[in-house]
Amino acid sequence: MLDQGSKFEWYRVNRNHPCEICDHIDWCAYAPEANLIHCMRVESPRPSRNSMGGWLHSSGRLTAVQPLAVKARPIAEPTRNFAALIARWRKEKAGELESFAATLGVQQQDLVDLHTAWAPEYRAFAFPMYDSEGFIVGIRLRGEQYKWSVKGSHPGLFVPYNAIRRMSLDFVLITEGPTDTAAGLTLGLFSIGRPACRGCEQLVVDVLKDLGAKNIVLVYDNDEHYDKRGVLVQPGVKGADTLRKMIPWPFKVSKFIPPTKDLREFLTMGGTKDLFLSMVRSAVRA
Predict the structure, then answer these.
(1) Residue with the larger pLDDT of the pair 59 and 111
(2) N or C: which end of the chain has fewer CB within 10 A?
(3) CA 199, CA 218: separation in Å to the nearest integer?
(4) Can you tell me the distance from the alpha carbon of 159 to that of 248, in angstroms, rounded to the nearest whole number?
(5) Burial (CB count within 10 angstroms: exposed 0-12, middle 13-18, buried 19+), residue 194
(6) Domain check: are 207 and 248 in the same one?
(7) Total domain count, the chain
(8) What are the residues whose beta carbons fall under 8 Å from the beta carbon of 231, sequence distance 6 or more?
(9) Which domain holds residue 8?
């Protein structure tokens, strides 16, 4: 049971009960008594008010309880200065990245290029999310057990702007999450990350156009599983396929489904740039 600070009992999703919204089997939670889903990946008009972040969704499986009314967001909502937060955190605790990089199995410079920082008040590492114009619109946090966002954050992309000048844009990887983005950079390939397997499709297209990229590789998470009905669920594949439909010609789009859980595990298990490109070239174009 997960205590969400409410009168309802919350339960962690698992293999037998994956999240109804994003189809993942971790991080999210559900409250059957209230017909609510607390999804950590897919945004809704109802952001969670607890320290974990995420968004609330009405469950489609139960109908005994009426969904809560959605309140309109105030027009004059204050905007947090996320860029100032990241700048302060990077200045205060820059040395924390060395051990974090070693834990992830990526190069420290790749975390630096993503403007990663240690956020002491959250006791978590922070990754800025950018809009299509290069402004920071939110911050994703990664603690020892949880992933969430700074309050007021909007979904954006993890873009290593510092790496543009030193890396080739012949192949651009589109990954899921900031640590897979860092893994792609450590492989030696310019990478852009989405905050989840779904969403931010138009942002991706806009950034690719600005970069002048030609060859795009969609990196799918190998996270397929069977739901309670015995139906095969492939959230990573489904999310990447949705993005593929929005990437226009003349971009050349390929796909990469790692033989491991995700791209970072592919890297830590000994995967190399040459092996990655060989597998991409031998695969059917997306």
Answers:
(1) 111
(2) N
(3) 14
(4) 20
(5) buried
(6) yes
(7) 2
(8) none
(9) 1-71
